[in-house]
Specification:
The complex is a heterodimer of chains A (259) and B (297).
Chain A lengths: L1 E10 L7 E11 L4 E6 L5 H9 L6 E6 L2 E2 L5 H4 L3 E4 L13 H9 L13 H14 L16 H14 L4 E5 L7 H18 L3 E4 L3 H6 L3 E6 L2 E7 H5 L3 H18 L1
Parallel strand pairs in A: 3-8, 3-9, 6-7, 7-8
Antiparallel strand pairs in A: 1-2, 1-4, 4-5, 9-10
Helix pairs in contact in A: 3-5, 5-6
Chain B lengths: L1 H30 L7 H17 L4 H25 L4 H20 L3 E3 L12 H22 L3 H11 L1 H6 L4 H27 L1 E3 L6 H16 L5 H24 L7 H26 L9
Antiparallel strand pairs in B: 1-2
Helix pairs in contact in B: 1-5, 1-8, 1-9, 1-10, 2-3, 2-4, 2-8, 3-4, 3-8, 5-10, 6-8, 9-10, 9-11
The chains are: A alpha/beta (259), B mainly alpha (297).
The structure holds adenosine-5'-triphosphate and magnesium ion.
């Protein structure tokens, strides 16, 4: 589904701010994998997702989505294959536009946009049905401006938008980090349901070890721009938070030794 | 007092003409979130194009089409500078504006041309007629904009002004959206320039100086007086109403004895004040409902 081959990414090369964000990263995601991604601050998790999405171009290496080499494709073209939800609830929606207008934008992801009317009545019925499944009462507020929604409502809406046209790959970057625990849980449940119902290949970044273990069928841990731990199946199910914490400690003591 | 009342119909007609330009400014400033300074020159480009074509024997309506096209070309240049060459939008607009000054002089061959006894579609010599035609044109322009910004493409442009990251994530090339918006906006401004030249019976190289400020003033007056609410057609109409109010106020202060030389200063101060309204409002309400510090009830 997704292949990352020998990826390198350096920010601000040749300056004092030079940062090797990704170093020789290799990763293959199988069809239908739901992978949780953990790692300390600055480990390169967001950068990896941004490279996949084409926000930045890679310095070296190649990115294949469903066998197609997309390394040179701009962000807006790769969007045809990707659904994305960001950490910042403001990022995923257009606040000055209505809920249904946002959904209509998402409904046309990967399709050409012309001079047809921007939203049809048949679509409205579809959106109402989908919004009802979120169980947040949004189906009765379809023409409301999105800026009137709470962060959690916006994230749930963004998630719906990301999956309205089935993506080949769903990228979630700490999409519940800005929400209160109860809302975060709700959005995570919605995520899990949408992912399993549609068998979506998914990368979900989180700092919550419990969630990282509970959700998905595979877990990867990143450090200094690389994947240092990769478990799936039974082995992943039997992980405990303490196992992960131990690995984090090992990394930081290595760092101490090097320092 | 009588003089002021008598000047209202003429000011209204001017307001309708400038209203077309204000709608162009609205497209970039409000919908795309770009302050495009191209308009200060593309207005004249439209005026010059229309005037020269009429003098060359073209039908005034045909000349207006070319005025719009000339404006669109100017918008395309700014769009190219901004999106392809990554020049900040404000600077891209200023560069096009400056370059167009020379081009406008080239089009006219001198700094101004008069349209004496030439066929025109709108003229200050016949105010009732000018009002009727200005009104019809405004209604048509609003109808077209209402339709366009309701289409898939129009929605994508509006979203681009709102959240570029989201728009790219939805598979839209935000650079293309900016270019289309700038082209559309300057097309309206060029058209308004042609319209204005015919109304005044002349085009001159300074006719667009401060146009961006007049456009912003109209947008803000429209929003403050009529509120940014209801549907899109209402908002568009309120900008034109803002433009009419602006022209009436200008006529009023001119009659009060303000000299035309001081007019630009007056406009600049007015718009600076209007632009600061949101900030001032926030400050004012903040002090009013400032929470009582803990333990001090
Ligand atoms: N646009 C950028 N310009 C310069 N440096 C960047 C940029 N984006 C990321 N970096 C740097 O690259 C490194 C990896 O950052 P990244 O955002 O991928 O980390 P992360 O694993 O997502 O961390 P967090 O958990 O804090 O979100 C960091 O050192 C960061 O400072
Ligand atoms: Mg991150």
């Amino acid at each position: 589904m997704l292949e990352l081959k020998n990826i390198y990414k350096v920010f601000n090369p040749g300056t004092i701010n030079e940062k090797k964000a990704i170093q020789n990263l290799n990763f293959t995601l199988n069809d239908g994998d739901f992978v949780t991604v953990i790692g300390g601050n600055g480990a390169g998790k967001s950068t990896m997702l941004n490279l996949i999405a084409g926000v930045y171009s890679v310095d070296q290496g190649s990115i294949l989505i469903d066998g197609e080499n997309v390394t040179k494709k701009p962000e807006y073209k790769r969007a045809a294959y990707l659904g994305r939800v960001f950490q910042d609830p403001m990022m995923g929606t257009a606040g000055n536009m209505g809920i249904e207008e946002n959904l209509a934008m998402a409904y046309r992801r990967g399709k050409s946009r012309g001079l047809r009317w921007g939203i049809s009545n048949a679509e409205r019925a579809l959106y109402r049905e989908k919004l009802k499944m979120l169980d947040l009462g949004l189906e009765n507020r379809m023409t409301n401006k999105v800026r009137l929604l709470s962060g959690g409502q916006r994230q749930a809406l963004t998630l719906l938008m990301a999956t309205l046209q089935q993506p080949k790959l769903l990228l979630l970057d700490e999409h519940t980090a800005a929400l209160d625990p109860k809302t975060a849980q709700k959005v995570l449940d919605i995520t899990d349901r949408i992912v399993s119902e549609n068998h979506l290949s998914t990368l979900m970044v989180t700092h919550n070890m419990k969630d990282a273990i509970r959700y998905g069928n595979r877990l990867i841990m990143m450090n200094e721009g690389n994947i240092i731990f990769d478990v799936s199946g039974e082995e992943k199910k039997n992980l405990h938070v303490s196992d992960l914490l131990k690995r984090f400690e090992d990394i930081s003591s290595d760092r101490m030794l090097l320092a | 007092m009588g003089g002021i009342l008598a000047s209202i119909p003429g000011a209204t007609a001017q307001g309708l003409i400038w209203g077309v330009m204000a709608l162009g400014v609205y497209v970039t400033y409000k919908l795309l979130d770009i302050a495009d300074l191209t308009v200060d020159s593309s207005l004249c480009t439209g005026g010059a194009t229309s005037a020269m074509l009429i003098l060359a024997g073209f039908h005034p309506i045909v000349s207006l089409l070319f005025a719009a096209l000339a404006g669109m070309a100017a918008g395309l240049v700014t769009g190219f500078l901004h999106t392809r060459l990554r020049i900040p939008a404000i600077l891209a607009g200023i560069l096009t504006q400056l370059g167009l000054y020379s081009i406008n002089l080239r089009i006219m061959g001198k700094s101004s041309v008069a349209l004496l006894r030439q066929p025109v579609v709108i003229s200050l010599g016949n105010i009732p007629m000018a009002l009727a035609i200005g009104f019809l044109v405004i209604v048509a322009v609003i109808a077209v904009l209402y339709w366009f910004f309701g289409t898939e493409l129009g929605c994508a442009i509006r979203a681009t002004g709102n959240n570029r990251k989201m728009v790219r994530a939805q598979g839209v090339n935000t650079d293309s959206m900016k270019i289309i918006g700038l082209v559309l906006s300057n097309g309206l401004v060029g058209f308004a320039g042609g319209f204005l030249a015919q109304y005044q019976g002349s085009a001159n190289v300074n006719m667009g100086r401060g146009a961006i400020v007049i456009g912003l003033a109209s947008v803000i007056i429209g929003e403050v007086v009529f509120g940014a609410r209801f549907n899109f057609a209402y908002q568009l109409s309120s900008i034109v109403a803002g433009s009419v109010i602006y022209q009436i106020v200008i006529a009023f202060v001119l009659q009060l004895g303000l000299s035309t030389e001081d007019m630009k200063l007056f406009s600049a101060v007015t718009v600076a004040l209007a632009l600061s309204i949101p900030t001032l409002q926030k400050k004012f309400t903040k002090t009013k409902i400032a929470p009582v510090a803990a333990g001090k009830e």
